[in-house]
Amino acid sequence: MKLGILGGGQLGRMIALAGYPLGVSSTVLEPAAGSSAAQVCAHVAGEFDNYQALYELAKGSDVVTYEFENVPVGAARWLAERVPVFPPPRALEVSQERLAEKRFFTSLGIPTPPFAAIETVADFRAAVDEIGLPAVLKTRRFGYDGKGQAVIRTPAEADAAWQRLGGRPVILEGFVPFDRELSLVAARGRDGQIVTYPLVENTHIDGILHRSVAPAPDLGEELTERAADFAARVLAELDYVGVLAIEWFQDGPRLLANEMAPRVHNSGHWTIEGALTSQFENHVRAVCGLPLGRADAVGFSAMYNFIGNVPRAADVLANPDAHLHLYGKSSRPGRKVGHVTLRAGSADELRAKLPEWDERFKRTPS
Ligand code: AMP
Fold first, then answer.
1. Cα–Cα distance measured from residue 137 to residue 115, given in angstroms and rounded to the nearest whole number
2. How many CB atoms lie within 10 A of CB 354?
3. Considering only Cβ atoms within 10 Å of each terminal Cβ, which end of the chain, N or C, has fewer?
């Protein structure tokens, strides 16, 4: 089978790599030559709104997927008229716009932080009054890794945030004093079969994921079931096919949806070694119409991102618990260049080793 992938980053690379053992060969569409994914599979060069390039990808693919959520919805729909495209373009549409996304969660009975839509400075003042401070002002589109947002704690900060982000559609959210951030990765097959990975605990530095611990420690069964139920509602409503990630804030017993990503997710990288079937393999299986594999965790894992500097393989692998993934990228500040997953056989072993791993792979906030 031939799989087309929109986007040539590390997610595309790991999808392509997962396809080979299943007899699935991939082609990525990506403007840049020598991208992370194009190093391991075929490549069509072009922008995502270049219809000649899209046509070429469609012609050479049995099915097309994407590895980032800012693919133009028009391009995904145009492709979907020519070749099956999974996840469905509507999933892109919902997740590209924070207001649509929050309203979508709300319509399915999934709790979110309080939010208000803002266009004008008058809307902004009214929203600050209604939601109260602290709050977070966010652009509605093209926000990722904490970009395009400002935390507002005081009225003076409100003015500064509006100066920086106002003048375009934004949303104001109540600041959630969360205990921790969790995420759930789930996959749905073409036949509607759903598998759900365990909830994982995520730590961010400068808005970029630093560490995921899987399964999240000290989880009640009830929380896990609730998150899985919420994810199932999203998957069913979108008639979704492929892997989906939802990010949550846990505030005591409350689980609030922050955002979703219609793709494989950084907080699911641990599944390569830490689950019976990786998120990448299940994504390939789903979009290619193959049965899904079990998503249970095998042991206990912690994943750390490498940001900016490419580490030396020998240094990382000096730890016998470590599994290294380099993305074939050069060092550049703020860039995700690889990750490491460390595994433990028991929750106690993980707890005992975590401080040492945290120290070894620590990242200093800028
Ligand atoms: P986002 O781009 O929406 O995922 O936000 C990036 C990070 O900012 C999140 O991972 C949280 O750590 C923090 N954040 C975003 N929204 C809120 C909120 N409403 N309350 C508290 N923290 C937030």
1. 10
2. 17
3. C
**From the CB of 175, is ligand 1 less than 6 Å away?**
yes
Of the chain, the end-to-end C-alpha distance in Å amounts to: 44
Residue 238 makes CB contacts below 8 A (sequence gap 6+) with 87, 88, 90, 91, 94
Q: What CA dihedral angle connects 236, 142, 203 and 7, to 10 degrees?
A: 70
CATH no. of 114-174? 3.30.1490.20
What type of residue is 56? E
Ranges of each domain in the chain:
2-85, 114-174, 180-360
pLDDT at res. 144: 60
CA of 32 to the centre of ligand 1 (A): 30
Q: Is the CB of 146 under 6 A from ligand 1?
A: yes
* pLDDT of 101: 98
**Model confidence at 48: pLDDT above 80:** yes
For residue 89 and ligand 1, the question of a CB distance below 6 A is answered with: no
**CATH node for 180-360:** 3.30.470.20
Name the pairing type of β-strands 2-6 and 63-66. parallel
User: How far is the C-alpha of 209 from the C-alpha of 331, rounded, in Å?
Assistant: 17
Angle between helices 10-19 and 279-287 (to 10 degrees): 70
Task: Give the pLDDT mean for 197-226.
Answer: 95
Q: How many CA atoms lie within 13 A of 283 on its CB side?
A: 35
Q: Can you give the pTM of this predicted structure? A: 0.97
